[in-house]
Amino acid sequence: MPASFANLNLPPQQLANLGNLGYKLMTGIQAKALPHALQGADLIGQAKTGSGKTAVFAITLLAKLDPQNFAAQALVLCPTRELSAQVATEIRRLARYQPNIKVVTLTGGQPLAPQAASLEHGAHVIVGTPGRINDHIGKHTIELNQIHTLVLDEADRMLEMGFMEDIGKIISLTPKHRQTLLFSATYPDDIKRLSAQFQRNPIEVKAEALH
Ligand code: ADP
Ligand code: MG
């Protein structure tokens, strides 16, 4: 039977928000992954496009955010500018149950200075491409030492695009005790190596069907 979000131990405000967004039943990957992710486990999630993987990591990272602390607490790495924008939009929708959560997108094709300015007063969540995030690291415009949730979204595509080195540099600046969530449509050897390098006892969840 398809599972309801009410089965999860979410704040009632988030349940109401999910209802307002039209999220009644969890998709297959959400039902399999969220109970583990919300307990803080590292995760490898594999499910086809359109199966609701964004909500798995968005709900998880938002549940752990301290809204009073304007340091970056969650970092989501995505392969492209378009995907980063989509992910940021979805996180903002899922964050509506808490006031004043700031999500900043850092991707290429735009000057660094306005992005740096948008970080000056802090941001709870950073979403972006590995190349541009590394540019900000080089300019000392972001701090990653309070990241508690790190997400590698579409990890297979990021590796295909040659982002391995950038990803390694970025992760090396995040705390060791973070939660690391990795999502990939495929699970080749280089993804297994990436997981072995950056995750601790990850739970593998795979969903074929949507529900
Ligand atoms: P994926 O990353 O797996 O390709 P997305 O996270 O982009 O998929 O989700 C695809 C679409 O499904 C989005 O428009 C999202 O808002 C919607 N969606 C996700 N989870 C649910 C749900 N449980 N109920 C209804 N719609 C959902
Ligand atoms: Mg996705």
TrEMBL record:
It comes from the Bacteria. A motif (Q motif) lies at residues 3-31. Residues 3-31 form the DEAD-box RNA helicase Q domain. Residues 34-205 form the Helicase ATP-binding domain. Belongs to the DEAD box helicase family. This is ATP-dependent RNA helicase DbpA. It comes from Thiothrix subterranea. The lineage of its organism: Bacteria, Pseudomonadati, Pseudomonadota, Gammaproteobacteria, Thiotrichales. The gene is dbpA. The chain holds residues 1 to 211 of 458 of the full protein.
